[in-house]
């Protein structure tokens, strides 16, 4: 940190420590950094100590966390909620439940009462270790202290009781939750669906599923996969076709190839009619995984079924070939879209621009940029990021920064990926000082950037300087 002859300040050390905590850097390196900090005459502050305790979490270093906590108090710093919650996280990870309870008591003595988040963390660690009676007692304790259990509290207990086979107790928790006016969330409903389903209680399971939808929630991949797994384990009951089709769509979206293919094969086994949405989902997931032959089989199936390719089909095909580096194939498909009467969208152009950009074909990418503009398709942040990355890959940093300036004038807000492309590019080229200058001057380049966004970039820069 002092190679450039500049003495780091407290804030610099704190940023690096924050990065260390996120990266789970070995404790020895953390200690060495703190020693260097003290050798340079810089005393830790409360933020430093809180971050040091966070550094102990991933590796469950409860002894080290306790030492930091003691040193913090000895140095005259009063622990705050961040301190106590970080320490509780460490003790929870280390399964030091009695120590965690003592932290709760110390919080109360320090005039820093635990919050619902504090109790939820404690209850969760007890549930994970099967200490359900103690977890339920903690819920009672929080109520005595005037803290209402929330949806996280109840869902954690319901899931734990379910795993322990205590179904009646889990239902009691759910009933109490509803009585107290605490609304279930999607995780709660998923837990109840699983609880009833694995025990063959299908009417109860489907009643919860209906309640989930009535409450305004959209089933997620966990919901659908739980339902299919339950039906799969009970061969006497056939899953509805709509359920299996939905599973193809949902699993394709989250790129869960095994489950999407399993559901697709189930549809074929049942000789269900395969519509454009299902087939597009399979083209998409096979394309994401660069499985060209399987994509071609789906396209053949669409042709046999007289199903016309849609914009979504074409986009998936271009996405696959762009990731394979075949920009000529991508543009051929774009040409085919236009000749087929299907209107290409922004995603279509972005995909082909990406294919050219990653191969350094900036001129061809720029041609398509002009073409999409002429069609009234306004470039978005994805479009601009492709060009920024392409410029950076060719060490054209001035052009990249000018483009960021231009996108801001066009009302398109740069995002983290925009800035990271330039930042990583500078660092890869050994231009760390230029990277620091770039981050420091961002408020002039983009007045709308928040202090938190800029702080995040300084943290990324700190990671590079530690390599």
Q: Mind sketching the topology for me?
A:
Layout: H1 10-23, H2 27-39, H3 46-55, H4 62-74, H5 81-93, H6 97-109, H7 116-128, H8 132-144, H9 151-163, H10 167-179, H11 186-197, H12 202-214, H13 221-233, H14 241-253, H15 257-269, H16 276-288, H17 292-304, H18 311-323, H19 327-340, H20 346-357, H21 362-374, H22 381-393, H23 397-409, H24 416-428, H25 432-440, H26 442-445, H27 451-465
Helix pairs in contact: 1-2, 1-3, 1-27, 3-4, 3-5, 4-5, 5-6, 5-7, 6-7, 7-8, 7-9, 8-9, 9-10, 9-11, 11-12, 11-13, 13-14, 14-15, 14-16, 15-16, 16-17, 16-18, 18-19, 18-20, 19-20, 20-21, 20-22, 22-23, 22-24, 23-24, 24-25, 24-27, 25-27
Organism: Leersia perrieri
Protein name: Pentacotripeptide-repeat region of PRORP domain-containing protein
Family: Belongs to the PPR family. P subfamily.
Question: Can you walk me through this structure?
Answer:
This protein is mainly alpha-helical. Among the domains are: 1-114, Serine Threonine Protein Phosphatase 5, Tetratricopeptide repeat; 238-306, no CATH class; 308-378, no CATH class; 400-467. It is 72% helix and 0% strand. The chain has 27 helices and no strands. It has helices at 10-23, 27-39, 46-55, 62-74, 81-93, 97-109, 116-128, 132-144, 151-163, 167-179, 186-197, 202-214, 221-233, 241-253, 257-269, 276-288, 292-304, 311-323, 327-340, 346-357, 362-374, 381-393, 397-409, 416-428, 432-440, 442-445, 451-465. The chain is flat. Mean pLDDT is 91; it is low at 1-6.
């Amino acid at each position: 940190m002092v190679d450039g002859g500049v003495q780091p300040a407290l804030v610099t050390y704190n940023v690096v420590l924050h990065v260390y905590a996120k990266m789970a850097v070995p404790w020895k390196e953390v200690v060495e950094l703190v020693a260097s900090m003290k050798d340079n005459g810089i005393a830790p502050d409360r933020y430093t100590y809180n971050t040091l305790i966070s550094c102990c979490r991933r590796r469950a270093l409860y002894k080290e966390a306790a030492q930091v906590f003691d040193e913090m108090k000895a140095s005259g710093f009063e622990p705050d909620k961040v301190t106590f919650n970080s320490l509780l996280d460490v003790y929870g990870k280390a399964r030091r439940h009695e120590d965690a309870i003592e932290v709760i008591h110390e919080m109360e003595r320090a005039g820093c009462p635990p919050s619902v988040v504090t109790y939820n963390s404690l209850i969760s660690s007890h549930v994970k270790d099967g200490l359900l009676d103690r977890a339920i007692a903690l819920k009672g304790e929080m109520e005595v202290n005037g803290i209402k259990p929330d949806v996280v509290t109840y869902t954690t207990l319901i899931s734990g009781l379910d795993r322990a086979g205590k179904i009646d107790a889990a239902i009691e928790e759910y009933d109490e939750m509803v009585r107290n006016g605490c609304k279930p969330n999607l995780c709660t409903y998923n837990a109840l669906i699983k609880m009833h389903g694995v025990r063959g209680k299908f009417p109860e399971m489907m009643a919860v599923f209906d309640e989930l939808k009535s409450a305004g929630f959209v089933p997620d991949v966990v919901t659908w996969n739980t339902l299919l797994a339950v039906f799969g384990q009970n061969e006497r009951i056939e899953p509805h076709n709509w359920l299996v089709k939905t599973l193809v769509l949902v699993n394709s979206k989250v790129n869960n190839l095994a489950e999407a293919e399993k559901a697709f094969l189930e549809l074929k086994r049942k000789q269900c009619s395969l519509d454009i949405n299902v087939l597009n989902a399979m083209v998409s997931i096979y394309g994401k995984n660069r499985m060209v032959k399987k994509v071609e089989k789906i396209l053949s199936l669409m042709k046999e079924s007289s199903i016309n390719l849609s914009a979504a089909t074409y986009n998936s095909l271009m996405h696959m070939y762009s990731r394979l580096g075949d920009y000529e194939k991508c543009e051929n498909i774009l040409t085919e879209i236009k000749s087929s009467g299907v209107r290409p969208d922004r995603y279509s152009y972005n995909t082909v621009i990406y294919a050219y950009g990653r191969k350094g074909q900036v001129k061809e990418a720029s041609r398509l940029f002009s073409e999409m503009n002429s069609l009234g398709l306004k470039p978005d942040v994805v479009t601009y990021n492709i060009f920024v990355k392409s410029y950076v890959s060719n060490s054209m940093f001035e052009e990249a920064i000018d483009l960021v300036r231009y996108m801001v004038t066009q009302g398109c807000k740069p995002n983290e990926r925009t800035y990271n492309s330039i930042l990583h590019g500078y660092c890869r080229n050994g231009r760390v000082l230029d990277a620091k200058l770039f981050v420091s001057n961002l408020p002039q380049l983009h007045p709308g950037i928040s202090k938190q966004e800029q702080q995040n970039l300084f943290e990324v820069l700190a990671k590079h300087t530690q390599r």
